[in-house]
Amino acid sequence: MAHWYDQIRPKFVSNVANKYLLDNEFDAFQVFPKVNSRQLSGYIAKYNKADWIRIGTVNDYKRIGATESVGEGYEVDKQLYTLEEFAFHYDITKDDANEYDNPFDPVNDAVDFVMQRLRRVLLQNVVNSILTTGVWGTDHNETASKWDAKTSGVSDVDPVDKVMTWVEEIEKVTGFTPNRAIIAADVFRALKGNTHIMNRMKTTNDKVVTVGLLAKLFELDKIYIANAINSGGTDYMVNGSMLLYYVPDRPSKFKPAAAYHITYKGRGGNNIITRRIPMPHLNDALRIEASVKSQLVVLATDLGVYAYNLTS
Hints:
Layout: H1 10-23, H2 28-31, E1 34-37, E2 41-47, H3 49-53, E3 76-82, E4 84-92, H4 94-98, H5 105-130, E5 138-141, E6 150-151, E7 154-155, H6 159-174, E8 180-184, H7 185-192, H8 195-201, H9 211-218, E9 222-226, E10 242-245, E11 259-264, E12 273-279, E13 285-298, E14 304-308
Parallel strand pairs: 1-11, 5-14, 8-9
Antiparallel strand pairs: 2-3, 4-13, 6-7, 8-10, 10-14, 11-13, 12-13
Helix pairs in contact: 1-5
């Protein structure tokens, strides 16, 4: 028996999903580097801070004549991970298909809907996992120094001075300079109206406080604005907080990282798996499903500083 969805091939669904990923890279995989894994459970290597910062005495490194240089090994620690699967589907009904002249239109819509939902779920997982207290080496409760508070039209707090202090906190215990930050949308708004930020702009050609300008002021490579709304559509997923952290440009066991997103890479070479599932028992519906196996693994808590209650 022929079905309306017989002409819709799995490859077509996969291609639509791949196009979505090209146009809308998952936020969760941008904030922390993605490490591809072909195992659902295993160990990931991580640096040993003691080996990175140890020096000994300067005299140990002085060499006279034809003697050997001083040397020692480098120990690599490891951390266990177990990937979790996140999946979501949408059922295209026969009536959905009949409402279109082109039967492939509802497939595009369904794939976009499924991918967008999965994208938001993974971002919510990041918020739940790392944008909270008790995760990183240092937490700062800024109840007494709100970034949006003003006295006589002048902001009470200089955020640049605050961030530079937190940068030093990470540098002093790790030897590495934080290069990224995640800030809540209301914190971004507070920064745009902060008079100390505006005064610093007088020496630049920039006339508007942008994410790029803030990255320059804080001397960071990237700043991500956590502006996704919550499931109820009543507020953002996170408010009043900022995470300052360090990750390398590319994953390496010889470089430290605050965290990695370990993600399963299947035989097809994709992290996001799509499926076309005929559902004849559901009035001849076609199920479009997307799934990803992943885990956000915090590797070095002292490479992050979390600040909260930054806004009123």
